[in-house]
Amino acid sequence: MQLSLSTWQEVDAYLERSTGIIIPIGSTEQHGPNGLIGTDAICPTRIAAGIEEKTDVLIAPTINYGMAQHHMAFAGTVTLKPSTLISLVCDVIESLQQHGFSHFYFINGHGGNIPALGTAFCELYHAASRSRSSSPRCRLANWWRNDHITALARELYGEAEGHHATVSEVALSYFAHPQAVKNVAMNPEIAPDGEIYDAIDFRRKFPDGRIGSNPALATVADGERFYQLAVEALSADYQAFITGATQ
Fold first, then answer.
1. Could you tell me the sign of the dihedral formed by the alpha carbons of 23, 51, 214, 30, in that order?
2. Quick one: pLDDT at residue 247?
3. How far apart are CA 138 and CA 242, in angstroms?
4. Can you give the pTM of this predicted structure?
5. Would you call 51 helix, strand, or coil by DSSP?
6. Which residues of the chain have pLDDT under 70?
7. How far is it between the farthest Cα atoms of the chain?
8. What structural domains does the chain harbor?
9. What is the CA radius of gyration of the chain?
């Protein structure tokens, strides 16, 4: 059930049987020579749709923008300030909580969002404690941080999986949008690896936008395998989250 495709009466009816909601969140940022700029939002959006097919759950509209300042030396990237992202997440949760939602499950596609999301949750918990009001239940699920997904990426790509514009995320975005597959030669095949500090440093060290990866290996078929693993794992995790919170 999609929030954006529902009426308010349908949401009222849903709240009679569940107070949980899934909120996909990603980023709009460069992903190397063949990676889609929307990759980090596309992946959690598609995974959430797969969970929707398996269970009775309401899916909120995807938060497509994130904290991506370190990619701003590459055309097309859009970033939020950390404070803006924190405020946005708090406003979304507080709005939904006012209607009766209590459990907020964020499927995240972008590592740069993690600190801000954690801070947003802490802000909400702190405010609830001070006012002695009901605290929301929030969980952050980073879809790629799963043992089965990590094992499959290692099996398929070894060290070529990398750390940004990874093969797995590009493959999953291709599964979601096969019409957008890009065939681009990589030079070198596997990008160099290392730390970055800001956008200028990123572009200087990794001029094509990759870190340690060879996303030319990405295929639609592999993307479907990552998708299935993520849907299975996060469906179970969501159910455990809801059940555990109500026991």
1. negative
2. 36
3. 10
4. 0.95
5. helix
6. 245-247
7. 58
8. 3-238 (3.40.50.10310)
9. 18
